[in-house]
Structures are given as structure tokens and as C-alpha cells.
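HUMAN: I'm a chemist; might I ask for a sequence paired with its C-alpha cells?

ASSISTANT:
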Amino acid sequence: MGASQTRTRHKYQDLAEKTGFSLEQIQNLHKRFKQLSQNEETISKECLASIPALDNNPLRKQIIEAFFDKRNQHEEEVGYFEEIGFEQFLMVMSHFRPPNLKTTEEEKEVMRKEKLRFLFNMHDTDNDGIITLDEYRKVVEELLSKSGAIGLEVAKGIADAAMLEVASTNVPHMGPDDFYEGISFEHFEQILKDLEMESRMHIRFLDVDTTTMRCGKAQS
């Protein structure tokens, strides 16, 4: 028993160094993970879709997809996992970790860049390093049409106008016949440079009541 606890602590310590979470936070997140997975070693998209905290989030689909996006594992791989284990789950959760009183300015800047990259990846669905007009339209249409107060055509027009504004800001000397390929990560950073997001981008997984959740896996 003691040896098992020691191995677990060493594993948690390694995860703490990789993610910036405390050992207590990792332990709590592991409990949530096991509840979501119904004690399985991996979770699927259906598991995350059952989280009440995401029900009213207009970017619910994109957030869930982001957990299975290989780009968000701090590695160079692209593509999507069918299911993820706890360490992969934790690596994605680290993008939502807010700074604390001990976080230095340099660390805050790193966290901000990681959050921006995470958001960028959510919109760059084809992994080509550019948020195209079509990708941008899908996000804007989903955001604006959720309430039912605005139609898809109107949302599409707003997305097109917004992309045109982005193009004129980032490439001010475009000719009338020039084609704007889309938003690069550098442009994305510039667009959001005044947005304070280090403490705003978070999901309250630790406070979720998971007793009524169902993962969607077949029951034996």
C-alpha cells in the first residue's frame, strides 16, 4: 500500500511540474475524471458532453473538441484522439488554470500565450495555421444564432463584415482584388491584445456535480 501511494505521489509530482497544478488540485481533478469516466481509464466526448457547466456555453462543441485535439497536448502532433486518459485531460485543463499570487509576470505572459493558442486552435479546425472565413463564419453563426433571435443569414453577414474588418486592420494596404487568406496566430494575438484573459478563461470542473452524469459508454 505504501509503495503504491509513493508511486502515485511521484506521478502526481511529475504532472504538477508539467501542468502547474498543485498536488491537491490534481488529486481533485483525478476524482472528477474517474467520476466522468465511471472509473474507466479513458473518457470520450460523450463524457464531457454530460457536464452541466457546459450546457449553456455557446462554444460547448468547440471546447469539447479541444480536449481531443492533439495540438493542445503541448506537443507537435496534429489530429484528434478518439478517447483521452487522465494525463491528457489534465494537460488540456492546464490551459484554463488562472494565475495565483506567486505567478510572475513572465509566467503570466506564457500562460496568456498558451490560452491564446488554445483559443486559436479551437477555431482553426483544419490545422492549417489559419482561421479562414468559413471557419470564422461557423463560430460567429453558432454564437449569434444560439438565442434564436438572429437568423443564420444575418449571422453570416456579420461574420463576413467582421472578417473584412480584421483583414483591413491586419493588411491595411490590400488592393480591391487581393484575397485575405485568413487570421494567422500573429493576427489573432494582435486582435486580442487588450483582452484580459489570464483569469477569465476557465471552466469550473472542480465544482461540478457529477452524480447524475453518464458517459455514454455501454453498461455491462
User: Anything to note?
Assistant: The CA atoms of residues 99 and 108 lie 7 Å apart. Strands lie at 42-43, 84-85.
